[in-house]
């Protein structure tokens, strides 16, 4: 299944978007191994930095592009369809296509790859007067 931003944007909730993107990988599963230098070259390129900025602006700096889930710290730009060594070596243009990219935080990114929903940041509950005082509720 090829995941796209167009399809993702039709899903309104964070949970729906997470389920659409979830990969169910395994911790420690081989990815780039000794070829990790290739993706480091990619992520330091001017084209990646430009693409990354476009995606972050499009997503308003929100986790999975969901309004109300603004990212206060470092933003990751996630490839919705995992890239391969061959994609980098052959210069696959899809690597830089915003249609296949989404803004996220590290916890959400890890949860997408490993299917562990416990890693997801929970919605912040709005405080109310006396909400921490059990005898005044």
Description of the structure:
The chain has 137 residues and is mainly alpha-helical. Helix content is 34%, strand content 6%. It has 6 helices and 2 strands, in the order ααααβαβα. The chain has a two-stranded antiparallel sheet with strand order 1-2. The protein is elongated and about 65 Å long. The model has no long low-confidence stretch (mean pLDDT 87).
Summarize the structure.
The chain is mainly alpha-helical. The chain has helices at 5-8, 14-21, 36-43, 46-58, 85-89, 106-114; strands at 76-79, 101-104.
Describe the largest sheet: 2 strands, antiparallel
Give the oligomer, counting copies of the same chain as homo and different chains as hetero: single chain
Low-confidence stretches: none
Strands of the biggest beta sheet: in what spatial order?
1-2
The H-and-E topology, N to C, reads as: HHHHEHEH
- Rg for CA atoms: 17 Å
Beta fraction: 5-15%
Question: Which properties best describe this structure?
Answer:
137 residues; mainly alpha; two-stranded antiparallel ribbon; 2 strands; 34% helix
């Amino acid at each position: 299944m090829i995941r796209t931003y167009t399809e993702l944007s039709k899903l309104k909730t964070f949970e729906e978007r997470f389920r659409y993107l979830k990969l169910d990988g395994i911790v420690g599963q081989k990815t780039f191994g000794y070829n990790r230098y290739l993706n480091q070259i990619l992520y330091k390129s001017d084209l990646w930095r430009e693409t990354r900025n476009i995606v972050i602006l499009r997503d308003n700096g929100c986790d999975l592009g969901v309004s109300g889930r603004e990212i206060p710290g470092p933003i990751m730009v996630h490839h919705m369809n995992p890239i391969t060594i061959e994609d980098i070596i052959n210069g696959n243009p899809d690597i830089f296509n915003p249609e296949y990219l989404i803004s996220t935080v590290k916890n959400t990114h890890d949860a997408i790859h490993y299917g562990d929903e416990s890693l997801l940041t929970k919605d912040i509950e709005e405080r109310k007067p006396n909400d921490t005082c059990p005898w005044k509720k």
